[in-house]
Amino acid sequence: MFYALMCKDKPGSLDLRMATRPPHVEYLKSMEAKGVLKMAGPLLGDDEKPIGSLLIIAAADRQEAEAFAAGDPYAIAGLFASTEIRAFNWTFGNPES
């Protein structure tokens, strides 16, 4: 099953995001290599600066999706004000369908 993770940064945390970006990118690359991460990118504010993250992952269940989210270096660093996890039916544009 696919899950969408919508993570919103704490206000004024761009410096923390940028400082934590290298381990975050390595984490995502490792998850992509395992076939877990399907798509990811930053959510942008009106000024086109990052204000959060949107990720699509493959996970067996919600608990596995929660574990993925908790293991993200951004989450570990305390970047996110909130993380919403929702089951996702990837209907259009899914390269695996």
Task: Please give the structural blueprint.
Blueprint: E1 2-9, H1 14-33, E2 37-44, E3 50-58, H2 62-71, H3 73-76, E4 80-88
Antiparallel strand pairs: 1-3, 1-4, 2-3
Can you put this structure into words, describing what you see?
Helix content is 35%, strand content 35%. Strands 2-3-1-4 form a four-stranded antiparallel β-sheet, with helices on one face. The protein contains three helices and four strands, in the order E-H-E-E-H-H-E. Strand 2 and strand 3 (50-58) form a beta hairpin. With 97 residues, it is α+β, with helices and mostly antiparallel strands. The protein has helices spanning 14-33, 62-71, 73-76, and strands spanning 2-9, 37-44, 50-58, 80-88.
Question: If helices are DSSP runs of H or I spanning 4 or more residues, what is the number of helices?
Answer: 3
Order of strands side by side in the largest beta sheet?
2-3-1-4
The termini sit apart by 13 Å
Shape: globular
Radius of gyration: 13 Å
- What is the H/E order? EHEEHHE
Catalogue the unreliable spans: none
Task: Please identify the oligomeric state.
Answer: single chain
Q: Which structural category fits the helices and strands?
A: alpha+beta
Q: What fraction strand?
A: 35-45%
Average pLDDT: 96
Main sheet, how many strands, which sense, barrel?
A: 4 strands, antiparallel
Number of strands: 4
Q: What fraction, in percent, of the residue positions are helical?
A: 25-40%
